[in-house]
Amino acid sequence: MLALTRDDVRLKCKADDWQQALALAGAALVEAGFARPGYAGGLLERERQGSTWLGSGIAIPHGTPASRGEVVATGVRVLQFPDGVAWHDGHVVHLLVAIAAQSDEHLDILRQLTHALGRDGAEAMLARAEDADAIVAVLGHVETPPKLDADTLCLNLPVRSAAELALAAAARLQGLGCVQPAFVAAVASQPLIPLGPGLALVRSAQAVDVPALALATSQAPVEGGLFGVFCLAARGEAHRPLLERLEQLLARGAVAGLKGLSADTTLAVLAGEDGETHTGRVRLLNAHGLHARPAKLLVQTARAQSVPVRVRVLEGSPEAISAASLTKVLGLGARRGQTLVFSAHGETAEAAVAAMLAAVQDGLGESVQPLNEVVQPREVPAAQTEALPAAPEPGVAMAAIPASPGLAVAPIYVLRHPRFDYPEKAASPDHEIGRLDQSLAQAAQQLDVLIQGTQGAKVANILSVHIEMLADPGLRDAALESIHEGASAEAGWWHAIDTAASAQEALADRLLAERATDLRDVGRRVLCLLCDTPLPEPPDTPYVLVAEDVGPSDVARLDTSRVRALVTAKGGATAHSAILARALGIPAVVGAGEAVLQLTAGIELAVDGDAGRLIPAPDPETVRRFERRIEEQARIEQEAYQNRHEPACTRDGHRVEVAANLGNTAHAVDAVERGAEGVGLLRTEFIFMAHPDFPDLKTQIAEYGEAFDALAGRPLVARTLDVGGDKPLPYWPVAAEDNPFLGMRGIRLALSRPEVLETQLRALLMAAGSRPLRIMFPMIKDVEEFRAGKRVFDRLQAEIRAPDVQLGVMVEIPSSALLAASLAAEVDFFSIGTNDLTQYTLAIDRGHASLSAQSDAIHPAVLQLIRLTVEAAHAHGRWVGVCGELGSDPLAVPVLVGLGVDELSVTARRIPQVKAMIRRLGMPQARELASLALAQPTAAAVRQTLETAVAAALEPGQD
Ligand code: PEP
Ligand code: MG
């Protein structure tokens, strides 16, 4: 949003006609350095296509799309014509807001100006103003409302003065990063403004980074019976509506009851929920939060009620939104474990709220698990490239993110989103609204037809969410708002879509943020109809689909029997394209970067969905190798599954244990069914994350007991709480750090609160009874840290005496691999966390958007550290497991076995294949493969070398 200042305003301009006024506007933009002289022609041309008259004596001239090349920087100049200019459409203009914009920023400015249009006397004031500030004040600008939530409340403090309350509130805002120290100092010198009985306000606009409102209350009244101080960090006027709401609440006497209340009840009071409001709360249990599908059902339920229903997230802002608007509901960003608060007024309010609660409890169309279950897929962000890159070289392998397993070789079909060319403005809003409504209806019909013809419930479900998005009154209203402001149906609709999608993208939860793709997907469908542009048609022979990102309706429209693989330039492993590919069993590689879009249509592409690799125009030998592997894989997978319960012994009888990685104890049954010989890594922090507060001893015993029961005597390797870095625990906040991966995480954090570690260790030991329990500490850097953890363990074990327990460490920091000999003398076992070991060895953040493809755990430096660890462990008679993702990598398995790793712990789905692979190996060949890999200089060289060498080692008759 552009904010106007007095320097942007030119007072007392004069022009004989509208063309001259436009020429002055163009010159002002050029003088300000926003545009080149050629832009003036664009302003004129745009005006000829349709008037930019807005109302209240304002016009907003801006260039045509063709003239955007003349824009140097986005900017605005306001020209005042006190005598008025006769505009070509019959109006008189007193103010020109001339815009130089490279995209559609003018629509934002337009929205901003509508605030001015509604005000009484605005036109006369703008025409006559003698001072630039007066014009700026009338035009105003829209800003984000202040942050107000449970975080900004500090309640029931043991303070003795109002000043302490004000400072406590200001300090809280500083702690949250909303303000800088100068704000706190400013608040200290501000007088308190009485608000009403017992309450006061203190405010400052100094050193405010994020506008926010904090509230501090005291345990006992302080001077003058005061018990609460609101502290406002103001920026602009965005806090006005909030303060007005507060004033209304004060007038109703509602806020006087804030004394001694909890955060929840305080937020309810601030939300205006009173005796007249019927409210109900319900915990959201859906694994991925309130994403599109459940949100759709929630919205449908709200729309079916006879009274309007509002909803807010208990842990969020006390501003409730309409539960009948899909975009608003999605914008809540509600996650699993958060509480939704529904409210309604009127006779049938109680029934309406009850219906909402029941719908959420039923899972909103999804099967939901109680909070002691959690599914936390690791999300890999998309690779990003900045400039338009060159096409990939033929025959040269490219690395990207594996999203769905399997191999394919086929000619590519590059799906490009159609280009739309439409006028930005239109003369008749009614006509435009008619066109938009017709296209919305046609798009819904198209989607209905697609749903009938689609394979698989998942695709159909996603498409039905699209239908729901089309029916969202929030989207249509936003489009209509722009249309009434003079936008064409196309521009209004796309602005509404883009705004909603951008809001979705800004959400912290990546899974919810990725639903923005759905919005744009459905938005393009409607644009195609409005612009009469055909949707792209794929070939009717088998192909690899290459696209920037693949929306669900793209997939549904394609004949999936012909799509051999999906490749996307953008998107992470949890993008819909990836989810759909997995659901449809299509190999997929995502986040391959913009370069893939430069590939020439029709050339062959070899896709390896297991390793996340692409080879454009592969040579005949590579093609033959891929084809052999495709056939082979189908056969092996079937055989592997049949033999999943057999042990994994190499051809020469060397046994390697294959266990499962779990983040959820309820999945232990499934892991055993897939052939797991134990749990090799229980990520206990995911169990903690599924609780709103630290689970108590009893709860933890029950959780761990569930895994032990399912394992029926097989060992459980539990990692103690590994919080911090990329895994925050909401109720264990860690102070902001520049490098969280190098800060308070893992064992360092756990040792800072030994009582938490102690309860966890006690629960594990008690749950185990006589069953085999292996406990390991995460992120150990040397023996000293291990000893600190062991002291806690020893104290408990002396008391509980669980008979079959081992205590080990994770090797995921290079120092612990390098010092493995000193650790091996004291630990019972090692488990190598290759995910973190790789990030710390290669100095690449494991979630880095553009570098993650280079962060390959098969790197020879990582393999060297594994070798050191195994050698040190075996010299002391200790066993070594690998529990990072490398253990599932088909090329790495033989190397790890060859390095002497005793146990591989992998995602349950991969267990049959990993076991089968080990059975096809001989130890001498595995050792040779390990030496070969260790001798390579780079990860790419390791992969290249192993590709043929592993295939040869797995051939029968190698002994
Ligand atoms: C690892 O770092 O390899 C590991 C298994 O732990 P996590 O992925 O949970 O950090
Ligand atoms: Mg780790």
Describe this structure in words.
This protein is of the alpha/beta class. The protein has 6 domains: 135 residues, Mannitol-specific EII, Chain A (3-Layer(aba) Sandwich); 121 residues, 3-Layer(aba) Sandwich (Mannitol-specific EII, Chain A), CATH 3.40.930; 67 residues, Histidine-containing Protein, Chain: A (2-Layer Sandwich), CATH 3.30.1340.10; 124 residues, Phosphohistidine domain (Glucose Oxidase, domain 1, 3-Layer(bba) Sandwich); 102 residues, PtsI, HPr-binding domain (Enzyme I, Chain A, domain 2, Orthogonal Bundle), CATH 1.10.274.10; 311 residues, Phosphoenolpyruvate-binding domains (TIM Barrel), CATH 3.20.20. 42% of the residues lie in helices and 16% in strands. It is built from 35 helices and 31 strands. Helix 13 packs antiparallel against helix 14. The longest helix is centred in the middle third of the chain and has 25 residues. The N and C termini lie far apart (70 Å). 50% of the residues are buried. InterPro entries: HPr-like (IPR000032), HPr-like_sf (IPR035895), PEP-util_enz_mobile_dom (IPR008279), PEP-utilizing_PTS_enzyme (IPR050499), PEP_util_AS (IPR018274), PEP_util_C (IPR000121), PEP_util_CS (IPR023151), Phosphohistidine_dom_sf (IPR036637). Keywords: Cytoplasm, Kinase, Magnesium, Metal-binding, Phosphoprotein, Phosphotransferase system, Pyruvate, Sugar transport, Transferase, Transport. It comes from Frateuria aurantia (strain ATCC 33424 / DSM 6220 / KCTC 2777 / LMG 1558 / NBRC 3245 / NCIMB 13370). One of its GO terms (cellular component) is cytoplasm.
